[in-house]
Amino acid sequence: MSSAAIEVDGISYAYDGRRAVDEVGFTVDRGETLGFLGPNGAGKSTTIKMLTGRLRPQTGTITILDMPMPSQASKIQGRMGVAFEEKNLYANMTARENLVFFGRLFGVSDLDPDGLLDRVDLVDRGDDRVAEFSKGMKQRLMIARVLINTPDVLLLDEPTDGLDPVSSQAIRHVIQEEAERGAAILLTTHDMAEADKLSDRVAFIDEGRVLVTDTPENLKLTYGNRTVRIRSRDDGQIVETVIPLDEQGADERIRQAVAAHELLTIHTQEATLEEIFIHFAGRGLDA
Fold first, then answer.
1. Close Cβ partners of 251 (under 8 Å, ≥ 6 residues apart)
2. Cβ of 232: how many Cβ atoms within 10 Å?
3. 3-class secondary-structure state, position 163
4. Which residues contact 105 (CB under 8 A, 6 or more apart)?
């Protein structure tokens, strides 16, 4: 048995001759969260569709839980939880009825809908119709729904995009709990800050190709620029000095800047994942 729950090797997919995914490869271990990061249109959603069996790769192979996808799709899907950006919930049912209905589809006989609702802070809204829910509440219910079958693999497409802080925090907490339980999690997003909080490793994808895969910390240390930002007061004027930590003589420049004027604040600042993405892609997420 492989240590990786998800193994993707050289998969490609083209729409009308244009490659949306171009020889992509990566792995996700059990208990690991891989952030799959890139701008809209980079190939993230197409990759997810191939992983779930909705699309068949035109080149390459996918192995999930030691089974080939899509030839073993039904077996894999029974052990998988998927949350797409579009919500496949029944608006005229209550939150609890939605979970019970999907539990029957999965053949789960010991479903605890209130336990799932409690995990996403919706247990007090279990008897309310989904049509009355906010976007954040619907997304939390989606996360509860994907946990119905206690999945070994979770594929989450933009799970916190555009949500309020309460909903984002609830979903973030569930993702961390599922990783601790041993689920392999692929998290697709264009939100680099969110990925930095949740991911053990990240893979940058742009124009259908994976540019680099590593831990957020390694990427920031290897390719980022650490700085110290010092704000001082000089004759009533605010002076801000930014000193790159990795340049020779940085320690002496910091001492001089601190001693020169009345010190107000001093902060260290490391590179962001978005800055690292720009280093590899040559453009920002919104370009």
1. none
2. 19
3. coil
4. none
| Residues 264 and 233: beta-carbon distance below 8 Å | yes
Q: Are 129 and 91 in contact (CB under 8 A)?
A: yes
Fold of 4-214: Rossmann fold (3.40.50)
Task: Produce one character per residue of 25-54: b if its CB has 16 or more CB atoms within 10 Å, e if not.
Answer: ebbbbbbbbbbbbbbeebbbbbbbbbbbbe
Alpha helices in 234-284, H assignment, sequence order:
250-260, 273-281
Using an 8 Å Cβ cutoff, are 198 and 172 in contact? yes
Alpha-carbon distances of 82 from 2, 161, 232, 268, 274, rounded to whole Å: 22, 16, 51, 39, 26
pTM here is: 0.86
11 Cα distance to chain centroid: 20
| b/e map 173-193, b = 16+ CB within 10 Å | ebbeebbeeebbbbbbbbbbe
Residue 41: phi, psi to the nearest 5? 85, 5
Strand ranges across the sheet with 262-269: 237-244, 227-234, 262-269
Mean pLDDT of 228-241: 85
pLDDT digits (tens, 9 = 90+) for 187-227: 998 888 889 989 999 999 999 999 999 999 999 888 877 78
- CA-nearest of 208, 178, 205 to 192 is 205
Domain positions in the chain are: 4-214, 225-269
8 A C-beta contact, residue 217 and residue 51: no
The Cα–Cα gap between 98 and 121 comes to: 16
